[in-house]
């Protein structure tokens, strides 16, 4: 009989082993790093080895922290875990400074340590989401409600488990009833045919008689309503009943008139009041108000008194309400409500009101649920071999996934890490269309629970015009992003902001404001600016590199990544892989195509009809090749343009005095 180990003891042992490995690694660093070393190759090897060791400790500690139940133990592990994450980011920065590149090829070191490439995969701590799950759920409800009220999202009615069960039961009983009814009907018809009974057919009413009957019923209903209305008016006139019903009707009329006024005249009233209040601000600054804006409302009461003095009321027998005067009264209420909104827009605003306005203006959007693990790509196994042959290897999609975790997810997810690790305020993702730049932006938000602000050119066009409007927009974004951190500020097609064309309108008006926006961010502010671009070579590189301190150029996938991508996408879309489907052939012929094009190819082939035919007609290789033949791949000229631009960016970084690396150079 072998002794059994409880899960709690197992994960406690994992924690103990990780702590021992951490103590050994710290002792080794004290011995090695304190001794000066002139050989840069040896220095990089020491840094890379420590990076791998800390990554192993990170994996073990994260699992132990997630699985242990004891809260005090979890608190202690959390402190150590944050420290390990911070140390990994420090080592990454030293490696980047040494090689002047964000991507490192250390497969030879992995081989010496007898480790698989999975050892370099950055784990995403699960406490990033678990510790703020209630807050995120509440924020998602508020966001859905605002989007629903603004008409930016279709209503989705969720049902409870009990309601779903009841619907299924009703449907099943109805199905059984229909089956039984059909069965009994067949028996009845069979007996009827056997007996051959004589059936007398009873004719219904003629069309004229039917119409007369309908008219009789309708006219009686209309006359009864008229009689009831006249009786109520007479009883109210005699004072024998109260006029509560009439007051209810009046209230309904008031609400209807008020809503119509708000729709028809609300915008004009708002513009007029903005001009008046703005004039008050201007005159107040020079001492010329004379109390005009505090006394403007008093004129309404004098006007109403004058109107009633000379008004003919002979027509109003019931003395309930005058629709025209009610419209004037409600116009005053609408003006007061809009005046309050205008005043609030010029003074200090609450976070809730700013949040709502940004959502309604579509500057704060709902992030798609995309995990970093969904960004499928294989590790580059020939990096060191190519470097030794004086050939520059191309980063793999696994390298890109690792960089997104290091620079985007880990700092945003932990307050301690963000404050103490090397600070990255802005990150640029550059690459051809379809390589997954937007997907990675949404993955950062999903893994950290971050808000997603959209300041792309298409999103801000026509909104908050002028310099003052732009400042107000950025102020609102910054205030909400800091208050409800973590937050991601995304700028799609960011090259348009730094365009070489001389223009101060459109998205280019953000060019001078973005450095000030980043300057306002401090270490405690978990706010990350992420730009995406398909054409970085269209931008002025000097201001471009001043804003984005980390630039990651995403390449098209290599053979290994294309192989796993084909398999993953086909299975994800309901396909089945058999011997008739040659994935190796697909990976070879799809050289130059992006993951987005592979996804579109699979979705074009795997229609609903094709999925139904899967069992008797397996997928073949030529089905996908036909769709790819109609697509344009990433040509060599475009790849060279990205490489030339990345080298120019590196030179611009050196000129500006900063030392970040480039993902592809």
From TrEMBL:
Keyword terms, alphabetized: ATP-binding, Nucleotide-binding
TM segment ranges: none
InterPro entries for this protein: ATPase_AAA_core, IQ_motif_EF-hand-BS, N-DRC_Component, P-loop_NTPase
Protein name per Swiss-Prot or TrEMBL: ATPase AAA-type core domain-containing protein
Organism: Melopsittacus undulatus (Budgerigar)
All copies of domain ATPase AAA-type core, residue ranges: 427-538
Signal sequence region: none
GO molecular function: ATP binding; ATP hydrolysis activity
Top-level division of the source organism's lineage: Eukaryota
């Amino acid at each position: 009989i072998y002794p059994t180990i409880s899960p709690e003891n197992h994960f406690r042992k994992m924690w103990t082993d990780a702590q021992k490995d951490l103590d050994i690694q710290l002792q080794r660093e004290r011995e090695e790093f304190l001794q000066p070393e002139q050989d840069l190759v040896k220095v990089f090897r020491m840094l890379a080895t420590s990076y791998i060791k800390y990554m192993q400790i990170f994996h073990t500690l994260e699992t132990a922290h997630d699985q242990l139940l004891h809260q005090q133990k979890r608190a202690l592990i959390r402190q150590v875990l944050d420290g390990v994450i911070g140390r990994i980011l420090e080592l990454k920065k030293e490696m980047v400074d040494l090689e002047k590149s964000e991507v490192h090829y250390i497969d030879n070191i992995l081989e010496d340590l007898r480790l698989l490439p999975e050892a370099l995969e950055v784990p995403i701590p699960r406490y990033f989401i678990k510790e703020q799950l209630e807050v995120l759920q509440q924020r998602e409800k508020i966001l859905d409600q605002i989007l629903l009220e603004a008409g930016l999202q279709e209503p989705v009615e969720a049902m409870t488990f009990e309601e779903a069960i009841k619907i299924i039961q009703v449907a099943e009983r109805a199905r059984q009833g229909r089956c039984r009814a059909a069965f009994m009907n067949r028996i009845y018809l069979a007996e009827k045919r056997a007996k051959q009974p004589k059936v007398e057919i009873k004719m219904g009413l003629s069309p004229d008689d039917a119409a007369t009957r309908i008219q009789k019923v309708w006219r009686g209903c209309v006359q009864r309503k008229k009689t009831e209305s006249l009786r109520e008016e007479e009883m109210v006139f005699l004072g024998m009943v109260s006029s509560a019903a009439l007051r209810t009707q009046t209230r309904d009329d008031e609400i209807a008139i008020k809503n119509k006024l708000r729709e028809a005249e609300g915008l004009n009233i708002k513009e007029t009041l903005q001009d008046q209040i703005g004039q008050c601000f201007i005159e107040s600054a020079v001492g010329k108000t004379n109390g005009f804006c505090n006394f403007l409302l008093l004129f309404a009461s004098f006007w109403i008194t004058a109107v009633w003095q000379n008004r003919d009321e002979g027509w109003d027998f019931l003395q309930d309400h005058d629709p025209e005067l009610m419209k004037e009264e409600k116009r005053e209420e609408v003006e007061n409500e809009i005046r309050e909104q205008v005043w609030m827009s010029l003074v200090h605003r609450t976070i809730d009101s700013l949040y709502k306005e940004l959502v309604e203006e579509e500057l704060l959007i709902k992030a798609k649920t995309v995990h970093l693990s969904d960004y499928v790509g294989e590790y580059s196994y020939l990096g060191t071999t190519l470097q030794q042959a004086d050939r520059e290897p191309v980063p793999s999609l696994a390298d890109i996934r690792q960089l997104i975790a290091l620079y985007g997810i880990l700092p945003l997810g932990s307050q301690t890490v963000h404050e103490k690790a090397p600070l990255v305020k802005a990150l640029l993702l550059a690459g051809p269309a379809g390589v997954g730049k937007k997907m990675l932006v949404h993955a950062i938000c999903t893994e950290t629970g971050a808000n997603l602000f959209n300041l792309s050119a298409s999103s801000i066009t026509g909104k908050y015009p002028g310099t003052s409007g732009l400042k107000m927009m950025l102020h609102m974004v910054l205030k909400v992003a800091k208050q409800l951190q973590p937050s991601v500020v995304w700028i799609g097609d960011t090259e348009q902001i730094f365009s070489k064309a001389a223009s101060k309108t459109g998205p280019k008006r953000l060019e001078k404001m973005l450095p000030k926006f980043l300057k306002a961010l401090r270490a405690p502010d978990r706010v990350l600016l992420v730009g995406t671009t398909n054409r970085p070579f269209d931008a002025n590189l000097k201001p471009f590199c001043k804003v984005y301190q980390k630039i990651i150029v995403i390449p098209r996938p290599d053979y290994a990544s294309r192989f796993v991508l084909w398999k993953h996408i086909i299975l994800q879309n309901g396909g089945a892989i058999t011997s008739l489907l040659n994935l190796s052939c697909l990976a070879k012929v799809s050289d130059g195509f992006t993951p987005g094009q592979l996804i579109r190819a699979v979705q074009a082939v795997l229609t609903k009809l094709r999925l139904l035919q899967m069992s008797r007609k397996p997928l073949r290789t030529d089905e996908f090749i036909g769709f790819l033949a109609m697509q344009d791949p990433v040509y060599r000229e475009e790849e060279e343009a990205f490489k030339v631009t990345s080298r120019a960016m590196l030179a611009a970084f050196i000129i500006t005095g900063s030392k970040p690396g480039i993902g592809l150079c």
